[in-house]
Amino acid sequence: MPLTSLLLSSGSNAHGQLSNGTSEDVHKFAPCSFLGYPTGTLPPGTRRVVHITSGANHTLALLETEAEGKRHLEIWGCGDGSSGQLGSVLQARRTASVFWPIDLSLKNAGLDNYSYKLVCASWETTYIVLSCEGKADVFISMGADDFGDLGVEGMNKGRGKQAILPFHIVSFDHLTLEGVPVRKDSITVESLVSGQHHVVVQLRGTLVNGKEVTFVAGWGTSRHGQLGNLVSPGGGPTPFLTKPAVISIDDSHDRIIAHALGSQHTVFLYASGKVSGLGSSRRGQLQGLENVKHATGLGCTWNGTYLLVNDGQGDTRVIAAGSYMHGQLGRELPVGTSGLAGTLKPSAVEFPGDTQSVKSIACGTEHVLAICTSKGTDRSPDVAVWGWGWNEHGNLGTGSTNNIFVPVKIWTGAEEDLIPVRVWGGSGTSWIYATHDADWVQ
């Protein structure tokens, strides 16, 4: 019986975070495994892979499943769970080389009527948003708390330590907007993105005066201004925040529609197509972003920024800025550019022959994946995954560990008669989800 969908991974795998049953790096894309089911197959009832998110050595998969006519979301995890980032079961086991179902025993915490909504991973920490009709969303964190990663004040116990509880509820009760408190029973989490050690969420809620607001909050590392211009009691930059702080309030005339995080920077995309950034630009990752127009999507590597931009002719290109030493900018640079970090202007990634229209991108630590179609057609045989950048662990799936300086085609799905519809990048890892359905909803 032919496959109807497939999840593939490649790259760094010392803790089994690729979910292929081994702990060896993989240099070509290979099928993932789920506990109790044949390699290369998804759990029965799975309709689609909604999201893949990776930390330093752990991975989580958010699956949409259907049973008895009802759909719900499940979370599976693999890799390093020793800090509690995959829940108590895998913390006791320490590692898992295939995806295991994540059971947080929500009923024991009085959350049995809640369901999974969002999931995201930072270095050794995991964030999960729960929803329940008629109630405020619940934001939980679990794992390490090196730099206030858990978002729960007073939990930080120093590097390499983790909290005792299986998970923690992140509170937004203390937040005020222009001096007016937010009603704690009104919070909805619209989006969630994490960097190496900082987290940014977009929230919707109601102030105690009845005004409805959408705003952005964050916590974690902040020394470089990646959470805004925060000042410590001593007068210097705040090194990290252990609980959420308001970063910005949405302008109703040009609201934030997406954001992405690098190691020391944060980038926002607005409905108008403009872009803004916070934090370090030592590698040029924020340079010139204010001049970009008509952006439709974005992503960040540790030290780079990547924007999907409408070229006005029906196609989309990628504009890249930031670190380039391992080919991250996806273009040939002039001789003698070493040492020019921070001086290069944002420029287009150079696909060979300029024949590709980019549908979506995904950024790993210092590599980028893109789903593209040949210009002038949307026929399925012309859909492929391209990649470029750092490739030390074989994370670009080319069969080697050589860095890629100009985009190359790395997977088409032709042999499996499948179409790549989603890609994700992690810490030296890459993921492809392919199906027979070429729906481009991202």
UniProtKB/TrEMBL annotation:
RCC repeats: 5-65, 214-272, 316-374
Sample GO molecular function, one term: guanyl-nucleotide exchange factor activity
Pfam families noted in UniProt: RCC1
InterPro entries given in the database record: Ran_GTPase-activating, RCC1/BLIP-II, Reg_chr_condens
GO CC terms in record: cytoplasm
Stored SUPFAM superfamilies: RCC1/BLIP-II
PANTHER family: REGULATOR OF CHROMOSOME CONDENSATION
Protein name from the UniProt record: Regulator of chromosome condensation 1/beta-lactamase-inhibitor protein II
Organism: Collybia nuda
